[in-house]
Specification:
Helix content is about 40%, strand content about 15%. The chain has 8 helices and 7 strands, in the order ββααββααβαβαβαα. The strands form 2 sheets. Strands 3-2-6-7 form a 4-stranded parallel sheet. A 3-stranded antiparallel sheet has the order 1-4-5, with no helix packed on it. α6 links the parallel β6 and β7. It starts with a strand and ends with a helix.
């Protein structure tokens, strides 16, 4: 059977009850295999610093990483931040296929893009049209995978036409640790360097 996004009911922003000013776009969070402990978007907190970094962009002392999803949602409502992902469903995924389960269970964008070919994608540009209050749009990965780069190019083109602030952000996952050399050189005594490296790199691209 196809692999839906674990939180597909949120991806088209049908559950928000506020007018968003910012859209944070990720890639995919698989509904299977079993073992995906995420309780909401960016919710695999053992490997992901989004709910540490994103709140601290707005309030330096606010770390929500270990808080429940209700707290994350309240934060998003307070600051007008909507969340979605590019992939809505992987149609050629087969839950009975062990290789497919392993690939999806790796949560690695490159493997997903390499091994699967039939996707239902979230219409990001359509969301921007439906929610004209959104002025800031961020993809939480850098360029380098054609599947996502192609979709993001459409968002960038729309953003340029409509005067939106559109940027790529470094992944908030622990994979960011492989890109810390310059940060360590500039801030050799920084405590908790990974979380602060991600925060520093996001702050350089954020709209304020």
């Amino acid at each position: 059977m196809p692999c839906l996004h674990k939180f597909h009911n949120y991806l088209n922003l049908q559950r928000i009850d506020f007018a968003p000013n910012t859209l944070l776009v990720g890639t995919f969070n698989p509904a299977w295999p079993a073992g995906n402990a995420a309780e909401w978007l960016y919710g695999r907190v053992g490997n992901n610093y989004c709910w540490d970094v994103l709140p601290r962009l707005h309030d330096a002392g606010l770390n929500l990483r270990w808080q429940p999803p209700e707290v994350w949602k309240a934060f998003c409502s307070q600051y007008g931040i909507a969340l979605t992902d590019i992939i809505f469903c992987i149609n050629d995924a087969d839950q009975e296929n062990e290789q497919h389960r392993q690939i999806l269970g790796s949560y690695q964008d490159a493997k997903i893009a390499e091994h699967f070919h039939d996707f239902t994608l979230t219409d990001i540009v359509g969301l921007l049209r439906e929610h004209p209050t959104i002025q800031n749009v961020y993809l939480t990965r850098l360029q380098g995978i054609a599947l996502f780069d192609q979709q993001w190019a459409e968002v960038e083109a729309y953003g340029e036409q409509h005067g939106l602030h559109v940027r790529n952000l470094r992944t908030p996952s622990k994979n960011a640790r492989f890109h810390m050399r310059q940060f360590r050189q500039e801030f050799p005594n920084m405590p908790e360097p990974l979380r602060n490296f991600i925060h520093w790199s996001w702050a350089e691209q954020w709209h304020f």
